[in-house]
Design a protein that fits this description.
Length: about 230
């Protein structure tokens, strides 16, 4: 019998691309204040083009080079901090809110998310979802070595909720890291494949595969009813 349903955050409850756009918008506003910098709109377009075409690690460096603006490690660090600490312009999709409301009436809900702590906390606040979860585990608070696929966050979640793994479900998106630990612990694991998701790679490890797959969060309540 399922009693506890835990969710990942990014690309599970909302499209992470929306957060990326919001972060690059904040960074563009910051850069536009530099001497000889173009307008924020043009900077955003360049940042987004780099990101959307696959440059996920040197986006700021590439854009600054394209504009002929001098940069150093300190400036890049400021841009990263601006991105991570900005107030996100994101909203929870109606289908996600509807499902959380429905499931809260039947199950104990939890959230377990990796990522840099201030950024993840700001996302949760912007999405206005704290009220749905009896427990929120930010794995960054445990230490970066305890990000998924470490089981530490799941063990903390079970301890906090007095929950058993065999009565618990984890819903997430990233096959590379999200399901390894909960599979090993005995959770039911469900992958949601949002059309705009960032992480589309599959894993070659059998232990990483989700036990079930859905394409819309609205399909989740009916699937849970089968367990």
């Amino acid at each position: 019998m399922i009693t506890t349903v835990a969710f990942d955050l990014d690309d599970t409850l909302y499209d992470e691309l929306d957060y990326c756009r919001s972060g690059f918008d904040a960074a563009a506003e910051f850069l536009a204040e530099l001497p000889d910098a173009p307008g924020a709109g043009r900077i955003f377009d360049t940042l987004w083009t780099n990101f959307a075409t696959g440059n996920r690690t040197k986006t700021f460096n590439a854009a600054l080079d394209q504009f002929g603006l001098a940069w150093d490690d300190d400036l890049i660090a400021e841009l990263i901090e601006t991105y991570r600490s900005h107030k996100p312009k994101i909203t929870l999709p109606p289908d996600s809110r509807d499902v959380l409301r429905r499931l809260k009436a039947k199950y104990t809900l939890a959230l377990l998310t990796d990522g840099y702590l201030p950024a993840q906390q700001l996302k949760v606040k912007a999405l206005e979802i704290e009220e749905y979860f009896k427990c929120i585990v930010y794995t960054e608070q445990l230490g970066r070595e305890f990000w998924k696929p470490s089981p530490a966050g799941f063990e903390k979640l079970m301890l906090n909720l007095n929950a058993e793994a065999e009565n618990s479900v984890y819903v997430a998106d990233n096959e590379k890291k999200d399901f390894i630990a909960p599979n090993k612990l005995g959770f039911v694991t469900i992958q949601i494949l949002r059309p705009a998701r960032i992480h589309t790679e599959s894993s070659s490890l059998p232990a990483a595969a989700p036990q079930h797959t859905i394409h819309k969060i609205s399909q989740l309540p009916a699937l849970l009813d089968k367990f």
